Amino acid sequence: MKLQDYLLKKSSHPAIVWIVGILTMFESIFLFVPPEVFMTPPIVADKKRAVPVVIAASIGSLIGGAISYLIGMWVFSTVGLWIINTFTGPEQFAIAQAMFAKYGMLIIFLSAFSPVPYKLLAMCAGFLGFPALLFLGLSGIFRTARFAIVGFLLWRFQAQANAIVRKYFWPLTILAILVAISGIFLLFLF
Length: 190
Known about the structure:
Blueprint: H1 3-10, H2 16-27, H3 36-45, H4 50-88, H5 90-113, H6 118-128, H7 132-156, H8 158-189
Helix pairs in contact: 1-3, 2-4, 3-7, 3-8, 4-6, 4-7, 5-6, 5-7
């Protein structure tokens, strides 16, 4: 049995919505696989799962984002100060904080809809002291919007998506990973 057929078959399991939520939470903390990879099989297998999968992905992402934010906040007092003093300096850090304070909403929006890994943004937000509730609120809105758009498109074009996933599973998987890697490189370019 091909892997894509196996995944689509397993996507009908009652626990798949929970699994999507947990995997999306892990993606927001340490995985470098776009959440759409987890969302696609259950919705393509059964379009009635679109809303529960979007909700699970949104909640998982928000929980993972909060954990990543806390990691960034905790790292600041230990490793963070060493990084600042060794590689940049307090002046550059103050500039970065001011930029994040001024453009934080735009940065969070771009992270929600671009290949820049969300976990890195969440850690930076915690590290730079961006207000936690504002970060989580904006993340919840923008990440949910992203997942809702993906969920709607998969729901709307379920038959076509099913055919595409069956035919181009591996190229799409590799493309998703390459997009995530390109997001990391984009982050380091700025």
